[in-house]
Amino acid sequence: MDHVDIIDAVYQAAARSELWPDTLCSIVDYVGAVGGNIVYQAPDGRGSFLIPGRMRDDLNRLYLRQYTGNPYARAFEKVKPGEVVIGNELIDAEAVRHSAFYADICEPQNIFNQLFLPHASLHERGGIGGVALFLSRRQDEHAADAAARLKLLSPHMARAIDLSFQMSRIARAPELSQRLIDAIADAAVLIDGRGAILLVNTAAEALLQRADGIFLSRSERPSLAAHISESSLRLTNAIRQALLIAAGEDTPFEGAFSISRPSGLPPYLVMVTPLAPTAVSIWDAVDSGARVLVHIVDPEAKTRRQAQQLQRIFGLTEAETRVAALIGSGMNLPEIARVLGISSNTVKTHTGRCFGKTGMRSQAALARLIASTPIAEKRAAAPARTSGKSIPREL
């Protein structure tokens, strides 16, 4: 599987938690490891869990029962969420190889080293959790390359794991449709059996109002469309296929793809998930009319919020903040000028002022500063409700 296939599998697993073991196996192969897991180790041991990918079940149980306090785990407690670390660079690896933990857990599974990607919501619960991948002695020679590949997947893994957890929690709650749509930080749209929009969350409402690549079509009934005809056809076909699957048919399905934006900003990543009993059984509990979930990720949105945080810290102007956000999203100065509709000299002026206020000396340094800036996530407002079966409020 290539990078795009892996990302597709990750988001499919987000909606169908039973797919995580197979998805982890694909990630293991893509990164170049012998096995891996998604793990959470609670401070008191209660509530700990481990989702394995090509790992021995008997040794997983032994690990959770006896070895959660191993040197790797203690070292990983200090790693910031989103960072990828190589375990043997943090511990006395030679000493570990003479321990009972190594003899009982690592050696039988050909584990010589570990990569770890902490997950924020698991760390916040007071324990340690994230994605761990295990390298053999031979694979350890390419540990840095493996870590780089895992780093490329890290933002998608974070979103998918959070979405998985939210859907799991919501499965046991009333008013399922409202709670699900409200729990997703990115734009999310619920589609009914006719292909019409049933419900949107606040992020989706704002995205559709911008109408930059994806917009609300009212030709027959409120539905999603894209400005580029090829993308619009792809979106329509994906929703149609998902509806067929939701109705119990076996049909080919393309659930993840990108949609370009006329503004020139990074394209949206769109995930379409059928809400059929065989795919997401939790939807059996409520007859909400929802048959498809459309999840739209704006890669530039987080960078924009981080740049706004810099605006508050360093006193950037609105214009300087817009330029800083686009630098943080990876654009060069001519691209920024085109997106904002201003001259290259104006972009250079704003960039120079950003350097002066933040103390940075290059675009790369400014981008790193933006990427490292924490943001306080605001709780989403109440979702937009429909006034009937399938007509959402005005967007």
Summarize the structure.
GO terms for molecular function: DNA binding. With 395 residues, the protein is of the alpha+beta class. It is 45% helix and 16% strand.
Topology:
Blueprint: H1 3-15, H2 20-31, E1 35-41, E2 49-53, H3 57-66, H4 71-76, E3 85-86, H5 93-96, H6 100-106, E4 113-118, H7 120-123, E5 128-135, H8 143-170, H9 176-183, E6 187-192, E7 197-200, H10 202-210, E8 214-217, E9 223-226, H11 229-246, E10 256-259, E11 268-274, E12 290-297, H12 299-314, H13 318-328, H14 333-340, H15 344-358, H16 363-371
Antiparallel strand pairs: 1-2, 1-5, 3-4, 4-5, 6-7, 6-12, 8-9, 10-11, 11-12
Helix pairs in contact: 1-2, 1-8, 8-9, 12-13, 13-15, 13-16, 14-15
